[in-house]
Structures are given as C-alpha cells and as structure tokens.
Amino acid sequence: MNDSARAQNRWVILAVMCLSVFLVVVDNTIVNVALPGISQSLHASNSALQWIVDGYSLPFAGLLLAGGGLSDRLGRKRVMQIGLLFFGLFSLAAAFSTSIGTLLAARAAMGVAAAFIFPATLSILTVTFEDPRDRAKAFGIWGATSGLAVAFGPVVGGALISHFWFGSIFLVNVPMVAITLFAGWRFIPESRSPHVSRFDLGGLALGTTAITTLVLAIIEGPTWGWLSVSTLGVFSLSLLLSAQFVRYELRRFEPLLDVRVFKIPTFSAGAGAIATTFFGLFGFIFLLTQYFQLVRGYSALSAGVHTIPFAVTAMVVTPLGALLALRFGARLVVSSGLVIMALALIWVGLQGAHTAYFGPVVVSMIVLSFGFSLITAPSTAAVMSSLSPEQIGAGAAVNNTTRELGGTMGVAIVGSVFSSRFSPGVASALHGYHLSSAQIAVAQSSMRSALGTVAALPSSQHAVVTSHVVEAFLSGFHRGCFVAAGVVGAVSVVTALALPRHVRSTERLTLNAALAH
Q: Which of 4, 9, 406, 493 has the fewest CB atoms below 10 angstroms from its CB?
C-alpha cells in the first residue's frame, strides 16, 4: 500500500471509530425522550425510569477498565467487534421488551457491551495516527463526536418516538452496528499492547460492586426513606466496599486502578471537573425532556427539536474551549465553564410551566451548553499532564470512567431529589378526592401516572388538580436544578484553586506518546 492509500485508510478508520463512539454514547441520552412513553406502556415508576437510564450507564462505567484491559490483551479490533455484535443483539432485546424487568436487563447488557467498544476506539486511533498533528486532529474529531452524540440523542430519539413505538430507539442501533462491523472487518488492522500485565479481577469486582450499591441507595432513597435501615445499610455497604477497593489496589503491584494518582491535586481537580460536568448535564437532560413533554405538552419529536440549540452550541464552542485553554490556561477556562454551568442551572430552576421558550428557556440552554463545552478538553489535558509516564494508563482510564460515573450519579441524585419533592406534592394534590392509598401510590410513581390518575377524576376537577400536579413536578424540577447547580458551583471553587494555569506542550506530547500503552 502506497503512502497516499495508507493515509486515506487512516481517515476511514477514524470514520469507523467515530460511528462506534456515536453508537454507544448516544444511548446515554436517546432514551430520555422515550421515558414518558415507556412509563405509559410499561407502567414504570420514577425509580424505574431512573434505572432505565442508569442501567446502561452503570455497567458501562464500571467495566470500562475491564474493556480496555481485555482489548490490550486479546486484540483491540477483536474485542471491539465482539462488543458491537452483542450490542446489536441486546438492542434487539430492548426494542421488543414487554416488561420493565426485560428492558432493564437488556439495557444493562447493552452497557456491558458498550464498555468493550468505547476504550478500544481510543486505543485504535492512537496506534493508527503516529504523526502528532494528525493524531491531535483525530482525537479532536473523536471527542467532538462523543459530545455531539450526547447533545443529539434527544433529537434522534424524539424523531423515532414520534413515528414509531419506544422500542424504535433501540432497533435503530441494529443497522448501525451492521455497518460498523463490516467497515471494521474491512479496514481496521489488529493491534495489541506489547506490555501485558496480570488482570485484576479482585479490583474489578470490588470497584463495580461499590459503585453499584452507591447508585442503588441514591435511586431508591426516596422510596425506602433516606433514614431507613435499607438506605443507610446500602450506603454503609458501599462505603465499606470502596474502602476495601482502595486498600486492595494499594497492595497490588499491577492494580486495575492506581488510586495513588488521586493524591495529585491537579489530577483530582481535573477528574472532578469532568465528572461534575457530566453530572450536571445528564441530570439536566433527564429532567428537561420530561419537562418539555409532560409540562409543556411537546411531542417527543418536538422535545428533541427544542434541544437543538444546546447541540449546536456544543458543536461550535467545544473546539473553542481547547483553544482558550491554550491561550488563557486550564484553570481560568475550566473554572469559568463550571461557574457558567452553575448559573445556567439556577436560571433553569427559576422557570415555570409557561415560561417563553424563545426567551429564557432557549437562552438558558445555550448558556448551559456554552459552559459545558469549555470544560472537557482542558480538564482532560490537566488530568493527563499531571502524571508521570508510568501513571498515564491510570489517567486515561479515569478520564473515561469519571465521565460515565458523573453522568450516572447525575441521573441518580438529581432524579432522587426530584422524586423527594414530587411524590409528597402529588399526595397533597390528590388529598381529599376519595382515592385509595394504592391509587395515590401509583400517581406518586411518575408524572405520567399522576396525570393518568387525574384523568380518572370527574372532569370538573381536572383543571385544578392538574395545576397542583404540575406544581409538584416543577417543585422537584427546580430543586433538582438547584442541587445540580450547587454541586457544579462547589467544584468550580476547587478547580480554581487546584488546576494549573497552563498545560505545557511537552506534557501534551508525552500524553500522545503514552496513550498507546
């Protein structure tokens, strides 16, 4: 193969990697616009809706380290192709689910498969693009694809839900998987890491279990009661498992995650900024899509279309964030982005059921997207530049994992805060209308169920009770936005104190060279 053909082949490989990334990342957000339909079709509660979202993100986040390790050992192309195959099969199972249990199991299995696709794409790009300038371009396009997938998920999902049943958002994955599998088989060469360490099964089991129990306690807290024995017990179990994970990893010669890197202030601040960014974003999207459909009355497609300004802003500003960090420093750009996000979340939390879309709603979304887009690239550079060459592998793993964990925790915590306000508000709205405790419990489970319960009341009571139910939703929506804003704002202070002003170019070159490992 001549140099021209080889160069062209590299960009074809990039296109395949971008399609793979879009496929697995878009499933983090595409499901949000389908939540009202899923709630109606499968009688899902608020807790179940949270698990439909987090049931994918949680195994995805927990197994990213395992996916990266296996791809280095068994072959990156092979592991990615196997992951894509199972992702397509589990998407079929999700598409034709007839119960919440089946859908949750299929979503979790999709998350497992995605964890073996995502890290392989970055490794394949690293070994494919040897020239630093071409590699920088490839990583930029790869990162932009991931961001666009997050932003455009609601648009794609809305278009499908408006014309088909909720399962169509999963069924659309199948032809995309087929195209990616064929293109990968045809154009991607196999590669493996020259240095293979012993696989840390104990660390994987402890880390995944600790994360799972933590998210379980947060999601079920409003249902069980925050001070109940069940909630406190699961929180305690998660804390014990986390402590054991740290002790276990510190004793290992070749740990799954070198937890000592968290002693580096720059590393911890950068990783915290990444996690917090996706915490705020995923929590916001989880509530916003329901607000558009169940409060403002938009169709699924219309709800997706109304998020386009967010996506367009992210597409334009994300490259700008990296350039601004080179000019003004990571500390200023990242902390400013977090402050902007926090202020935008507060602004969103002040909006009502009839706030003008072409005004406060769309402007606040654009401001939120602007802040979000300033953060990711400079934070990643800060994380990686704070490490020695021997620690780069741990840094790359944390960079991928914190993104998913942040998003998972965003849905879990913001969703739980919402439920803590929504459920008692619905009970108060329905008090005195001669409903059984079982009927009220069903109404408390989700906004869709609450509206269905109101519809069964005499027509003369619909307007008054519906307004109270909407008030309950907005109370939870506002509180969820304020909590997310508080978390994002607090982390902005930490990053302003801990992040370096500049990331040196020599450190970025070291990062590019070391990522291959």
A: 4
pLDDT of residue 512: 41
Identify the CATH number of the domain in which residue 185 sits: 1.20.1250.20
Contact indicator for 165, 302 with CB cutoff of 8 Å: no
What is the rounded CA–CA span in Å between residue 296 and residue 306? 11
CB atoms within 10 A of CB 56: 27
Instruction: Please tell me the predicted confidence (pLDDT) of residue 396.
Output: 59
Give yes or no: residues 59 and 83 share one domain.
yes
In a domain, 492, yes or no: no
Place of tokens 């960014």: 277
The boundaries of the domain holding residue 176 are 1-197
Q: Are residues 182 and 206 in the same domain?
A: no
Mean pLDDT over residues 129-148, rounded?
66
388 neighbors 23 (Cβ within 8 angstroms):
no
Q: Helix H segments across 265-361?
A: 265-290, 300-305, 308-328, 330-348
What is the rounded CA–CA span in Å between residue 199 and residue 480? 40
Can you tell me the mean pLDDT for 114-118?
85
Our count of domains for the chain comes to 2
**pLDDT tens per residue across span 273-299:** 988 988 998 888 878 878 888 888 887
Identify whether residues 100 and 210 lie together within a single domain: no
